[in-house]
Design a protein that fits this description.
about 325 residues, alpha+beta, Aminopeptidase, 2 domains, 4-stranded antiparallel β-sheet, about 25% helix
Length: about 325
């Protein structure tokens, strides 16, 4: 039986998502999400569908926005290959069509074969390749550029974002009121963690109230980095590295718009602020064909995502993938 999830489903949803193939692989580990509904909270139009077995246990879930982004799709191992993922996606598509959506899309980590297979079987195609950058936090140094200030001028912020994203697809409408409403509703967001100049906008979102991660393994690049950090401790600046079994607190970059020189300085200051907030890593996703120069300022571990999409109506949505896409951190 497919139905809409309620608050009573929170514990079952947390367990279901924590065991999904993609859970936490963005941070090289297994994700633990304290608040399953936190990511959809900033949006007025969203729904979480679940499939319950005859005993009442949740065995599958999916969440989607009227903007067309599929947050989660998960099925427990013993209930897979029964068509539940396809039924959940069909339910989301019906819900979205009724609210005027013309396209659904999702970001799926490379190597997550079960999820990629489920979406492709449902008629979704790979539209773009995305890159995730994980920045372990060194004892960073950096200062705000002259004229930088905490975000107060939302009109200028919205103008900077619109101006930087004219060549991108999947850009949400960004007037000052909508931007302020969206960011202010993010769990863990603080206005003094976002800075702007007249030419650039960049800030930090402490994502730990939404999700944290408990590492169960480290990738080879991080194992090498850990060894180097241990040998260089006390001599060179070293990052705060993940510890197996210990929760990771991470942040996401917001804004990332404007002139490269100002963004370079704002990025350095953002890494400093992240350490002040006791975060372990900072994440940033971007279209694989467009890497901003300022992202090269610090060491990062790169990963790959696939943006899969399905038009719900014939028309312009069928052309998604012809231009770079903007990866909105709010949708992660």
């Amino acid at each position: 039986m497919i139905r809409e999830a309620t608050e009573a489903d929170r514990p079952s949803l947390s367990a279901l998502l924590a065991g999904s193939p993609q859970a936490g692989r963005m941070v090289l580990a297994q994700d633990r999400t304290p608040d399953v509904f936190a990511r959809r909270r900033p949006y007025a139009g969203s729904v979480t569908l679940v499939h319950a077995d005859p005993g009442g246990d949740l065995v599958a879930t999916a969440t989607e926005l009227t903007a067309g982004y599929v947050f989660d799709l998960a099925v427990v191992p013993h209930a897979r290959r029964r068509g539940l993922a396809g039924r959940l996606l069909a339910g989301l598509e019906e819900w979205a069509r009724a609210r005027g959506a013309v396209l659904l899309y999702a970001n799926i980590m490379d190597g997550n074969a079960p999820s990629l297979g489920a979406f492709r079987a449902g008629g979704y195609r790979s539209a773009r390749q995305l890159v995730s950058r994980t920045y372990p936090l060194f004892r960073a140094v950096g200062e705000l550029p002259p004229g930088a200030r905490p975000l107060e001028d939302w009109d200028t912020a919205a103008q900077l974002l619109r101006g930087s994203l004219v060549a991108y697809d999947l850009v949400r409408p960004l007037d000052s009121s909508a931007l302020r409403t969206l960011w202010s509703a993010l769990p863990g967001w603080r206005p003094d963690d976002v800075w702007s100049t007249e030419r650039a906008l960049l800030g930090l979102w402490d994502y730990s109230p939404v999700a944290r991660a408990v590492p169960i393994r480290l990738t080879r690049p991080l194992r090498v980095l850990s060894a180097l950090a241990s040998s260089a401790s006390g001599v060179l600046p070293v990052p705060r590295l993940p510890t197996l079994g210990k929760p990771i607190r991470y942040g996401l970059l917001l804004g990332a718009a404007g002139e490269p020189d100002d963004l370079d300085a704002l990025f350095a200051a953002t890494l400093v602020r992240a350490r002040e907030r006791q975060l372990d890593i900072v994440l940033f996703l971007h279209d694989a064909t467009v890497r901003p120069a300022w992202t090269k300022r610090a060491f990062s571990v790169a990963g790959t995502y696939h943006l899969v999409a399905k038009p719900l109506l014939a028309g312009p949505a069928e052309g998604l993938g012809e231009r770079p896409v903007w990866v909105d951190p709010v949708d992660l």
